[in-house]
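Tokens in:
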């Protein structure tokens, strides 16, 4: 078992009473601070001799002894400065002691002090980490060996501390660099926010966002695309490339609504992938048919553009970091912030453009409305002047009177219709257009409306196909007649003289479908929806000086929707 013994018990005798030959070397000063020595020795007398030799070498040692593994383990907890171990003990050994030190991760130096030891055993001790080895009958260099072992340990500690300090310094420098980079990025984000907010043109805005995203994060390639269809197909609207990617400056290919791009937009979530993760992702399909032409992608970072209503507007994607590394969390945070700024700015720009378009439409409407209203007023005034002139001249016979009154009445009807359209638009925009539904025979309603139009459209021929039996539905007959009248009026207005206007009413999916086909100038495909907007008219109608406010189809579509139906136009050319 281990025992602890102070040097004061064994080495602090008065100098005059010390055994001869055990004096302290007067040329070698004692250590100022006692060292704690653990002696792994089964013979107490040998331990005393080793302690005396330490004293003689000028080392003030507080020592403790163990002679088995249990005592050794316990005394190791006392944190000795050096271990002096016999090579072989009845229940333990220096090699086992060295292994135990290594298991603990301890760097306490162990010097083997043995009565007899072969060269092979000495080499094995050194291989396992012994600081030195000595033979007990040659302890003259014990002090030197202990001092060197302690000095080596101190040097290791100092090197470790220096390395830790250097590592800490590197960490602090890296932290400062990251903080400086974050500060620079925050400044760049602030500048980008100003630049983005200042742009109210969508194209310029998207170019700015894309260029800033690539510059702030540091990537060779940045692409911004907008969602253009319900399948989340994308239209690439802005591209920013570094000089290294200049060969792909003219590359252009649509992003369809499939693959990994769809995930970004469908889930409205950010994706940050290394190249290996990208290629291993089940939604990644390479470049498909574009494999030979597509710019390279080394790592990928993508963030969705999300509208105020949570709907997807598009996405910003970056690839290939300029420093050659992978995109990290800071890069992702920057791109997400830019995407948020871009989403708000994009919607603002779109609202601004819509407002501008509304102003243009309003101005155009005011111009058209003033013209359309002025014409019937001028007609009424002109007819009244003729009426007055012929009356003064006594030439106002009954035929002229009837003709002039008919002209005034038809012109007044036209004026009333224009006024009613304006009132209907106002009612629709304020949610005040009410219906008075009742059981209505749609077949009879369409038949009667077409007959009235035929009386006033002598230059056109109507081909009517309606069911012979009643087609009864609950509807507001006045509003349904308004739809039929407006559609027929448009067909007459836009068709050439002699043109045939086909009208077909049929049962359809438990309801009714009215189809009107003319042989007019047609509607360009890109404006088939615009003609159903307030004041919306096809450009070819304005060019041909066809009168109209551009309100009728807007009103009729809204009336159809209030009945649970829909109104649309199809035009593959003329008609």
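Residues out:
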């Amino acid at each position: 078992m281990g025992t602890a013994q102070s040097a004061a018990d064994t080495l602090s005798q008065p100098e005059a009473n010390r055994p001869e030959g055990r004096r302290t070397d007067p040329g070698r000063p004692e250590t100022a601070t006692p060292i704690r020595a653990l002696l792994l020795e089964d013979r107490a007398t040998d331990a005393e001799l080793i302690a005396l030799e330490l004293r003689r070498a000028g080392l003030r040692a507080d020592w403790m002894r163990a002679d088995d593994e249990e005592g050794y383990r316990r005394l190791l907890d006392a944190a000795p400065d050096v271990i002096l171990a016999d090579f072989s003990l009845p229940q333990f050994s220096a090699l086992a002691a060295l292994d135990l030190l290594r298991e603990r991760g301890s760097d306490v130096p162990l010097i083997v002090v043995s009565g007899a030891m072969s060269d092979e055993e000495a080499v094995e001790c050194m291989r396992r980490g012994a600081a030195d080895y000595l033979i007990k009958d040659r302890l003259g260099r014990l002090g030197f060996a202990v001092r060197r072992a302690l000095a080596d340990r101190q040097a290791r500690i100092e090197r470790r501390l220096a390395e830790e300090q250097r590592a800490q310094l590197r960490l602090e420098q890296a932290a400062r660099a990251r903080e400086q980079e974050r500060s620079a990025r925050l400044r760049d984000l602030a500048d980008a926010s100003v630049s983005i907010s200042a742009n109210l043109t969508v194209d310029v805005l998207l170019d700015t966002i894309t260029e800033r995203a690539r510059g702030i994060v540091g990537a060779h390639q940045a692409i911004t695309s907008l969602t253009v269809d319900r399948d989340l197909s994308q239209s690439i609207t802005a591209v920013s490339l570094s000089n290294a990617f200049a060969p792909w400056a003219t590359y252009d290919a649509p992003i369809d609504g499939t693959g990994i791009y769809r995930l970004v937009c469908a889930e409205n979530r950010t994706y940050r992938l290394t190249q290996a993760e990208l290629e291993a992702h089940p939604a990644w399909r390479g470049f498909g048919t574009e494999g030979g032409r597509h710019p390279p992608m080394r790592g990928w970072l993508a963030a969705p553009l999300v509208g105020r209503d949570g709907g997807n507007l598009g996405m910003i994607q970056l690839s290939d970091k300029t420093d050659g590394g992978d995109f990290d969390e800071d890069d992702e945070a920057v791109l997400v912030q830019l995407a948020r700024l871009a989403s708000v700015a994009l919607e603002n720009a779109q609202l601004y453009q819509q407002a501008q378009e509304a102003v243009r439409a309003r101005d155009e409407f005011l111009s058209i409305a003033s013209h359309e209203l002025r014409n019937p007023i001028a007609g009424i005034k002109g007819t009244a002047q003729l009426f007055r002139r012929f009356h003064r001249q006594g030439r106002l016979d009954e035929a002229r009177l009837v003709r002039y009154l008919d002209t005034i009445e038809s012109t007044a009807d036209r004026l009333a219709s224009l006024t009613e359209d304006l009132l209907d638009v106002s009612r629709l925009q304020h949610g005040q257009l009410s219906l008075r539904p009742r059981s209505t025979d749609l077949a009879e309603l369409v038949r009667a409306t077409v007959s009235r139009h035929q009386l006033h459209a002598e230059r056109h021929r109507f081909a009517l196909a309606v069911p012979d039996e009643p087609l009864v539905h609950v509807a507001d007959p006045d509003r349904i007649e308004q739809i039929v009248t407006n559609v027929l009026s448009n067909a007459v207005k836009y068709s050439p003289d002699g043109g045939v206007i086909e009208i077909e009413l049929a049962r359809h999916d438990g309801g009714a479908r009215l189809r009107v086909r003319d042989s007019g100038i047609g509607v360009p495909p890109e404006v088939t929806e615009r003609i159903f907007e307030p004041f919306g008219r096809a450009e070819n109608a304005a060019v041909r000086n066809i009168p109209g406010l551009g309100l009728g189809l807007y009103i009729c579509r809204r009336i159809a929707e209030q009945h649970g139906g829909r109104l649309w136009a199809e035009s593959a050319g003329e008609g």
